[in-house]
Automatic annotation (TrEMBL):
InterPro entries: ATP_PFK, PfpB_PPi_PFK, Phosphofructokinase_dom, PKF_sf. The keyword Protein biosynthesis does not apply. Substrate binds at T199, I200, D201, K238, Y239, M246, G247, R248, E307, Y410, E411, G412, R413. The gene is pfp. Mg(2+) binds at D171. This is Pyrophosphate--fructose 6-phosphate 1-phosphotransferase. GO terms for molecular function: 6-phosphofructokinase activity; ATP binding; diphosphate-fructose-6-phosphate 1-phosphotransferase activity; metal ion binding.
Length: 539
């Protein structure tokens, strides 16, 4: 396989580990835990894994442990650093006993169910150290929720003498991992299940999990591109760039990229929902910034938009719900539109025709609007242009407006991991090996104190049930890990709020440039600004 100079250099990078994970460890159990909400319901669903203690690792001296075979699954969307979790897991189980084996299930959770796997040897692992992507074994979105799936997993684990499964995924994947752990305990089949926190969206975090892996790298990739566009905007001085960023359920990526680059406008979905802002109010606020800069001869700027914005605008949420209901009983769009409430009809008629068409014609297999396909950046450009024309007629705008739309999504999911993610992910993998060796199941691999140098990181595990609550999914109440939305009272949002008026008026752009893989630690190993602001606030 041909390799670039970067691939060759990164292969030699040795991820940094917490001091405690550089040798054998023992688990120190803390106090009993409870779920973040709905305690009685969660306890009934998880009688064997509920209430387990948070675990902290301490040095154990020399230990003699038997070999163990472990299976690993990549679940859900890609995130930078997944390969390092696997390489850390491999090195971890080999350090525990050189005869241990690691099996990768191919194509995600379906590989476990369908018995498709490969033994991951040192030769394979070494090809993927410090690389982006999930291509070592592939990923998938099959949900593990049926007893026949669980039982099929037992069959292959028994055949391969697998003692434990490590599931690398987001909130839903880790919820499924806990369901699997509970079932295997109930069946007393001797298979442990450990989860690892993955998602570039940054919404898998809480009082215990400080950050999900991949968020750091993805935000640095997006911020580089935003910085490049800012430099272009400041050079050409004639374009307004509207940039949509990944993050359907939460706006963490948009917020972090704003803190790194200082755009003129950054919309936060959670703020829009909290203030019950209408689409017109959002458009007017952007138009006011455009007009204010134009008055000073600055006919250019940058606007950051979270992917899920549409679903956070109350009136749009109502419109989408009404359309879903109406189009579920008739395929006649004109007939369905007649059934809209007066308020929703007014919103619908205010939309550009291209967006209105997406709302009525583009449906998912369940007949619902494909919200993620709505080109929000183009919607806002069109509506801001209309609003500015009205302002010009009123003598409130004197400039020229030319809007360009961008969507940064897949560009960030498989980048070579930053030093932070390379270190963090490798530590999560080694840590998972020691959770298994200490007999733990139903836990998520836990690395804390992550704004300190890596050798000072704290290792251990947190019960997945501790992070759960009950939510309605597909019409039924289900146990799920609670997503973390942007905290409007938190330090990261406050930093944005404190600076946004200056950034709107002045050109305060910051150009982060490409990810720094090599160089001084204070340049290359910095965590996200979000993580620093959140954790410093707790000190």
């Amino acid at each position: 396989m041909n390799k670039s100079a970067l691939q060759i250099a990164r292969a030699a990078y040795q991820p940094k580990l917490p001091k405690v994970l550089k040798g054998a460890v023992k688990a120190l159990d803390g106090d009993a835990t409870q779920s973040v909400a709905d305690q009685e319901e969660i306890k009934k669903l998880f009688p064997n894994t509920y209430g387990m203690p948070v675990v902290t690792f301490a040095e154990a001296g020399d230990v003699d442990l038997p070999a163990m075979n472990v299976g690993v699954i990549l679940s859900g969307g890609q995130a930078p650093g997944g390969h390092n979790v696997i390489s850390g897991l491999f090195d971890g189980i080999k350090a525990i006993n050189k005869d241990s084996k690691l099996y990768g299930f191919l194509g995600g959770p379906s590989g476990l169910v369908d018995h498709k796997y490969v033994e991951l040897t040192a030769d394979i692992i070494d090809e993927y150290r410090n690389t982006g992507g999930f291509d070592i074994i592939g990923s998938g979105r099959t949900k593990l929720e049926k007893t026949e799936q669980f039982d099929s997993g037992i069959e292959i684990c028994k055949e391969l003498d697998i003692k434990a499964l490590v599931i690398i995924g987001g909130d839903d994947s880790n919820t499924n991992a806990c369901v699997l752990a509970e079932y295997y305990l109930q069946k007393q089949c001797g298979i442990q299940v450990i989860g690892c926190p993955k998602t570039i969206d940054g919404d898998l975090k809480n009082d215990m999990i400080e950050t999900s892996f991949g968020f750091d790298t993805a935000c640095k990739v997006y911020s580089e591109m935003i910085g490049n566009i800012m430099r272009d905007a400041n050079s050409a001085k004639k374009y307004w760039h509207f940039i949509k960023l990944m993050g359907r359920s939460a706006s963490h990526i948009a917020l972090e990229c704003a803190l790194q680059t200082h755009p003129n406008v950054c919309i936060i979905s959670e703020e829009v929902e909290a203030k019950k802002m209408t689409l017109a109010q959002i458009v007017n606020s952007i138009a006011d910034v455009v007009a204010g800069r134009a008055a000073e001869g600055k006919n250019f700027g940058v606007v950051l938009i979270p992917e899920g914005l549409i679903e956070f605008i109350p009136e749009m949420k109502v419109l989408i719900a009404e359309l879903n209901d109406l189009l579920s009983v008739t395929s006649d769009v004109k007939e369905a539109l007649k059934g809209l409430s007066a308020a929703s009809a007014a919103v619908y008629n205010s939309l550009p025709s291209s967006i209105a068409k997406q709302l009525t014609l583009d449906r998912d297999p369940h007949g619902n609007v494909q919200v993620s396909q709505i080109e929000t950046e183009k919607l806002l450009i069109a509506m801001v242009k209309t609003r500015l024309a009205a302002m010009k007629a009123e003598g409130k705008y004197v400039g020229k407006f030319s809007g360009l739309g961008h969507f940064f999504g897949y560009e960030g999911r498989c980048a070579a991991p930053s030093n932070f993610d390379a270190d963090y992910c490798y530590s999560l993998g080694v840590n998972a090996a020691w959770l298994i060796a200490n007999g733990k199941t139903g836990y998520m691999s836990l690395i804390r104190n992550t704004i300190a140098p890596a050798d000072q990181w704290i290792a251990g595990g947190v019960p997945v049930t501790m992070m759960m609550n009950m939510e309605k999914r597909s019409g039924e109440m289900k146990p799920v890990i609670r997503k973390a939305l942007v905290d409007l009272n938190g330090a990261p949002f406050k930093a944005l709020s404190d600076n946004r008026s200056e950034w709107a008026k002045e050109t305060c752009y910051v150009y982060p440039g490409p990810i720094q893989y090599f160089g001084p630690s204070e340049v290359c190993d910095l965590p996200t600004k979000t993580l620093v602001l959140e954790q410093r606030n707790k000190k």
